């Protein structure tokens, strides 16, 4: 409607780059902030996008040319530090977040006309194994988009810990492009460990050394869970250097507020910045010529996934989403207002 003179291909290309930017922004200042829920990370991720001077200053005066004060997005040129950009093998290894998935999908009753929580209690439990592949497409179509979103929003994700890998991913039936079941079953957690070993990704301790982090010298350095320590001894004995990266990441004690381990966080921190500063669409090409005026406005005014859902399904957010972020459990109370400015809060 805004640009009737643009052809289908041009509209598609413009829409794609706008949508990609909105996803990247939500990932930076909404999803990551919920994953690493501390004031320090909230300030850091917003500074990545807006700079330390903040959104109001950037919206009012534009990018001032300094990535620290004005943010990475909108810099005059991209920065790849002399190395072509890629998602590294190490990033792939630490971004294995399958324990976030449940074994069952709790489907809520959204037909009630009241806002009573009990009236929307889960009525059905569907195994997640029934929601993948061609049969999953059919099942999800029958459930409907609104019920899917509301149900997912009210079901907390799993913890990234040992013994919390979804059972249905240990015996996955893969399908070919035509939707036919393939004969070889997939044990995904075993496959993930095997892939790291096959690609010679560093084991846990060596991985930390290469990140200039302190390696562990005994199992107690990794976790306080005595049951986990006993199992680690059964599997690895006293050969701490052989501890697989994925196992170590799941066993590692977490920083307060972090859903991921500190080891994984180091890689997250590097890649979160690099994927923005090395991309010309967030730097030298971040402007109306690439995005169009309306497209750039769309990116600049979108602050969260909740805002995107509200734009398309206002009744859903009004009735069902109590939390400030769509990445929180939706019936969680909204955060209390903090009167101390973000940069002045004590971590």
Automatic annotation (TrEMBL):
One of its GO terms (molecular function) is oxidoreductase activity, acting on single donors with incorporation of molecular oxygen, incorporation of two atoms of oxygen. It holds the Pfam family An_peroxidase. InterPro entries: Haem_peroxidase_animal (IPR019791), Haem_peroxidase_sf (IPR010255), Haem_peroxidase_sf_animal (IPR037120), Oxylipin_biosynth_metab (IPR050783). GO terms for biological process: defense response; fatty acid metabolic process; response to oxidative stress. The keyword Heme does not apply. The keyword S-adenosyl-L-methionine does not apply. Coiled coil: none annotated. Keywords: Dioxygenase, Iron, Metal-binding, Oxidoreductase, Plant defense. This is Alpha-dioxygenase 1. It comes from Linum tenue.
